[in-house]
Design goal:
This protein is of the alpha+beta class. It contains 10 helices and 8 strands.
Amino acid sequence: MRDNILKIGFFVLSVLLSLQTFAQEGPSRVALSLAEAQQYAVEHNRTLANASIDIQKAQATKWQAIASMLPQVSASSSYSNSLGYKMDLGPMKISMTPYMTFNVSTAIGLSGAQIVSLGIADISRKMADITLEKSEKEIANQVETLYFSALVTEETIRLLEENLESMRKLHAITQKSVDVGVAEQTDADQLQVQVSTMESTIKTTQRSLEMVYNSLRLQLCLADDVEIVLTQGIDDLLNLRTTSDLLASDFDVNDNYDYRLLKESTELARKQIALTGWSNGPTLSVYHQYNKRHNLSDEATMNMTPPNMIGAQVNIPLFTFGKSYAAIKDARLSYKKQLNTLEDTELALNVQYRQLLYNLRSAVEKYEIQKQNVAVARRVFDNIAKKYEHGVASSLDVTNSGTNLIAAQSNYVQSLLEIINAQVSLEQLLNK
């Protein structure tokens, strides 16, 4: 019986340890499309979690403003003992007996500043909502840029590896020609330098790719040892039809997050004028107090505390030596500055919209040209490589054509990045 209990205990312990180990282990590999990566980042990014907390804080501030206009109730109790002292009133003496008191106070204070503060708290909550939406969009855009950068870098490595394979083949042919005495060693040495340079370039690009993936892991809040697999390719994401639709979109400044935040900030400055004015305005306070006294002795004594008491007070500042006027004037000037900033921002955003349209059109045109340029450079390189194999072209021709091909591929890759950067910038401005 005892052995069976021990076996069951060890079994339960092993299960618990296994569950704990499994719970501590995170995913070791995630496969994500662009939309899935953006959604994953929005759900797990800590910056967005902080923005969500700011909304809760703004809501709490609003309720603080509301609570300040509601009745405030407090209760207290006390014990007093005069240690046998008797009050001498001439012909008579009154004993000061020990006693306990119980007090309940209800008070409410109202002012224009409290009402204005409630409006300010509501504006703060709206600004927190807009900030959260803006942060979500920025995170999604950053993920899109990194996702596309990883794909482009992988495409760069693929192109370089194709070139490296061709160069190695030509170097092997040249070295055989050198061995049989029909070619110079310098020709083989030049191609070997090209091979070594390309191998080094591939390693550098692979390290750059790892940096891109590390940045993507940061956005997704993944551990550094988690493997990320991108399930979409460049052709899936580089949709020029979508780019054309984006170029045809109209710009409404009221959809821009920065403009919406500035607009709410301007409204906040306007409310600040009223708050400054009401800060020196009249205030009304009303209170009710209930008192209960219980004597702890049977001796006759005197009780002058009324059981109920109500009161009201109005406070009206009469003269503050121009302090209120100066404060209100300062608030009005701040509001005027905010209005000027809002107008300048609207003009700047419209100019930025035109510039981003120009950047995207130029990026698309450059991409089409560079795409053709890569195809031409590849054909030239293959043609010269064939001529070199038949002894018609020199190793210098091969080196030059290889260099031109690499430059064309580099320009092509750069044009891909320019398209996605221009597209993301325009989408962010349009809030698409």
